[in-house]
Amino acid sequence: MHFFNATSNEKYENRTKGFRSYFLTLSGGPRIKLMQMDSVLISAADVYPQFTGLAHIAFSVGSELKVDQMAATFIVNGYEVLDGPRWTGDGYYECVALDPEWNRVT
Predict the structure, then answer these.
(1) Which InterPro entries would you find in this protein's record (predicted)?
(2) So what's the pLDDT on residue 96?
(3) Partner of 10 at 20 to 30 A CA spacing, among 31, 32, 64, 77?
């Protein structure tokens, strides 16, 4: 963190899902989310389980309504919505979809 003058929030943990995360906030506002999940595998033989490495890319669209609209747009255009729209345990309203290369877009 000290190389980029980043600050960290307190660790978020969901023990039911075996999930832990931190947000690193850089000067100017960009944030990086570091995540660890007990069920995340090391091999990428299947697109549905999550793996080590780049897990997903997230965008802020501005409102709960816009997230709902994005989810509907993904579905209408043939993209698979894996989760949501929903509120996460750490306070975010999100939808998780697969892009054409099976990356998770949140």
Answers:
(1) Fosfomycin_Res_Enzymes (IPR051332), Glyas_Bleomycin-R_OHBP_Dase (IPR029068)
(2) 92
(3) 64
